[in-house]
Amino acid sequence: MIKMVLDINLQLGNFSLLVNEEIQLSKINLILGPNGAGKTSLLRCISGLEIKSKGLIKVDNTIWQDSPLFIKPHLRDVGYVFQDSRLFNNMSVKDNLLFAKKRALNNHSFDLDEIIRILELESLLDRHPLTLSSGEKQRVAIARATIRKPVVMLMDEPLSSIDIKRRKDIIPYIERIPSEYGIPIIYVTHNIEEVTRLADKVITMSSGKITSINKISGPGISLSNENNESSTLIEGKIISHNEDISKIDLSGQFISIPKLNLDNGKKIRLNINSKDVAISTIFPKGLSIRNVLKAEIESINNLEEFLVEINLKINKKYIKAKITKKSYEDLSLKKGQEVYALIKSVSVEGMSLI
Questions:
Q1: What domains appear along the chain, each with residue ranges and CATH number?
Q2: In the chain, what percentage of residues exceed pLDDT 90?
Q3: Distance in angstroms between the alpha carbons of the first and the last residue of the chain
Q4: Buried b vs exposed e over 297-325: b needs ≥16 C-beta within 10 Å?
Q5: How many CB atoms lie within 10 A of CB 153?
Q6: How far apart are CA 219 and CA 301, in angstroms?
Q7: Which of these, 170, 317, 206, lies nearest to 253 by C-alpha position?
Q8: pLDDT tens-digit readout, 224-273
């Protein structure tokens, strides 16, 4: 995969985007952050749509921007999928694809028939965008962005206007782009399910800056949603199944989750919500909770007047527990203390790594 060098300075009214990073892109790189963090502005700068952007944008050995040099958007080797499909309504689906193919840089493009087959567009070719569902429109938009054979694909909340069922239908198509064509994706989302399913790397933004870059294969990534719910995304490996449970290896400790229809040895991602993690200072007995993991308290953070967040180290992985301040005080918890993390099997969401 490619390396992207960003040294960007963008001023939009009272908002400043200041990014200075070298990012070795993985297959799918998700950008997370609250509204107003600068996620869409960053994509617009990379694509060349933000003409007020200053600084350096370099993709491998190709410079797209280095003041005063500014390569125009249509001359940048980039694909862009927006929240809305932005298809040409006066053209058929096939003509939309042909239009993009003709605009490919240096006549480099993918085979039209192959793209149609991969994204299963055969039945849509003669239709016009106004007759398509939202999910069908986004599949066509993904195909149109892909056929140009870009070196990187930008996706700005491409599934946000699509209902849950159709989101699940489209996600496999997105996964195929880096896997089958070798095109890395930079993907903006607020949806934790999309992060759990898609992310190989998570880039976190806040107040116009990149605050962290983490691989899923590392010790764990902290996530939060618009409802201020926090969770940890970690990677494990299936080691066995029984009738209703799959057993997962987390660096030498084990967690049971509702059975997955996957082979032993398959790597999966687990999303563990901090409110579903309880703490015991002694090994518990007589509980219905199946998962009891030995842990060490790495850090303690006061969240609100009555809540405390405990960062727990479990061998080489980390998870978080959100408990009341009263429980924290009653247990006399402190940094470095050995405890047990209790996690309900039914509360853990597991998804396969493709």
A1: 3-215 (3.40.50.300), 226-352 (2.40.50.100)
A2: 65
A3: 17
A4: beeeeeeeeebbbbbbbbeebbbbbbbee
A5: 23
A6: 19
A7: 317
A8: 766 667 889 899 999 999 888 999 999 899 999 998 888 899 988 898 99
